[in-house]
Specification:
By secondary structure, the chain is mainly α. The protein contains six helices and three strands. The chain has a three-stranded mixed β-sheet. The longest helix has about 50 residues.
Length: about 180
Amino acid sequence: MVENAELRDQLVVLKSIPADDSSEQEVESLWRQLMIHESFSSSELAEAKAKRSAAEAARQQTEIESVRNTRAVTERMQNKAESAVEEAKSLRDDAASWGAITGSGHLSQLMSNVLGTTVQECVGPEATSRGTAILALRGLGIWKSLNDVPPRFGRKYESDPILHKLYLRDRIRHNSLYESLVAGA
């Protein structure tokens, strides 16, 4: 039985927190205070431990689901980017960037470093629509090559080989950690 009224109130609050509640800091703080004070019954302790375990399990499950969802999206983007870069490399030694990304030199440089290739901005109005139309015409056989009408290029972003190696290393590390997380779930 809790003799200290304040600790009893805290135990009531701890018991009332739903297992899926995201206020982890509040649960942890109350738990620590209760663990320091030893004057509570074993049933109250067992109930508080069960509530804490349930909240922790729910938090971990939410984190795992978030990581899985993020992973699925980034893998899809990675696959599309790698495929586009490989096709672009067969045409030229660089990858072209257009659309909203041309408004940020930082994003273009990041893309260059991650992909390990030169990224060059396409300039001109509606470059994305133009590219889509060109690909459609090529698919219909009207244009034989993407080089039939060369695009107008703007600024060039060279890949930093050191940063590219770091991104590759971190991607390998991320993949390994992700696989161990999924295996443990």
